[in-house]
Write a structure and sequence with these properties.
By secondary structure, this protein is of the alpha/beta class. It has 15 helices and 9 strands. This is Ketol-acid reductoisomerase type 1.
Length: about 350
């Protein structure tokens, strides 16, 4: 099943003329989208709490207001703050300043999909969700190169919500490569599925692989370099994105091609097991709303919950080996601390 794709020719930047865009949150996505909007000719103000990100917005030349005031000033309000804080911020600081005919834009479908945002009924609600971290959204805009993005209309109070969504998408550079028609439910479900099914399975594969290889007497340095520290998996995924899953095998040796394809055929039973597990995650946890209810209930305790999970995950010997290697003399590993986590929906 294919979805409609919107391009620059489908979007009219004139829709933004005379309207102020209030970007709530100047983290990774906020700073990128705000700068792209400004460079596209939009009038942009920033709503942010008093923190380092606010200081950065000032340095970048934006008019920076409190969140309450920014929501009152803007006719289009972009919610670019983390999922878990959006319901409280919207209820206490954004919704009171909205007027009939305004538009709220989300970059993540999560809170809309699970009914966690209490928004007035006389405003438009749309989603413009880049599938890129903020730095890439900014870089690709500057180079005139598109990036994946999902767009949807969740409420059309004015009859022109789609026009506004597409104008925002074009202004941030998303329609340069084609923005795909979607829904908050689809965006949230796919994002959560990747986070809860695909990546945990990748981590489990690496853990099991380390255990088998270490037990066979291979060194930690060689094992971790082979598995991921060399950066080779990132290169493989880049080729997959460029060429496709099977066609990228052409850049591997014939020994590698034969081994991969042979054991792909022998993994049918594993695929069946994963299918059952993934179906339970998708239907039993995500689409049922069970995960959203659990995560929303965590509230202010989120950081300590995440820390406890990280501490437990950190007890695996693979993590100990990785830390030892990273701390060794000559290691070039660097850690970056952005205003928001690198993988943020907002």
């Amino acid at each position: 099943m294919r979805a409609r794709t919107y391009h620059d020719s489908d979007a009219d930047l004139g829709v933004l003329t005379g309207r102020t865009v209030a970007v709530i949150g100047y983290g990774n996505q906020g700073c990128a989208q705000a700068q792209n909007l400004r460079d596209s000719g939009g009038r942009v103000v920033i709503g942010n709490r008093d923190d380092d990100c606010r200081d950065r917005a000032v340095r970048d030349g934006f008019e920076v207001l409190g969140i309450d005031e920014a929501a009152r000033v803007g006719q289009i309000v972009l919610l670019l703050i983390p999922d878990e804080v959006q319901p409280g911020v919207v209820a206490g600081h954004v919704a009171p300043g909205l007027r009939a005919g305004d538009t709220v834009v989300v970059a993540s479908g999560y809170n809309l999909a699970f009914g966690l945002l209490d928004l007035p009924g006389d405003i438009d609600v749309v989603m413009v969700a880049p599938r890129m971290i903020g730095a890439a959204v900014r870089d690709r805009y500057r180079r005139g190169v598109g990036y994946p993005c999902l767009v949807s209309v969740e409420r059309d109070a004015t009859g022109t919500a789609l026009h506004t969504a597409l104008a925002i998408a074009r202004a941030i550079g998303a329609t340069a490569g084609g923005a795909v028609a979607s829904s908050a439910r689809e965006e949230a479900a796919l994002d959560l599925f990747t986070e809860q099914a695909i990546w945990p399975t990748v981590f489990a594969v690496l853990q099991a692989s380390y255990e088998v290889l270490a037990a066979a007497g291979f060194s930690d340095d060689a094992i971790l370099d082979e598995m991921y520290l060399s950066g080779e998996p990132a290169e493989v995924f880049a080729r997959i994105a460029e060429m496709g899953l099977l066609d990228q095998l052409r850049v591997h040796s014939r020994t590698s091609q034969y081994g991969q394809l042979l054991h792909l055929e022998r993994s049918a039973e594993l695929v069946g097991t994963l299918r059952e597990r993934f179906t339970e995650i998708l239907r039993g946890e995500i689409l049922s709303g069970r995960f959203a209810a659990q995560w929303s209930a965590v509230g202010a305790d989120a950081e300590s919950r995440i820390r406890a999970l990280l501490d437990r995950a950190g007890t695996h010997p693979l993590i100990a080996a990785e830390r030892t290697i990273s701390a060794a003399p000559g290691s070039t590993g660097e850690r970056v601390t952005p205003c928001r986590p690198v993988k943020d929906r907002a």
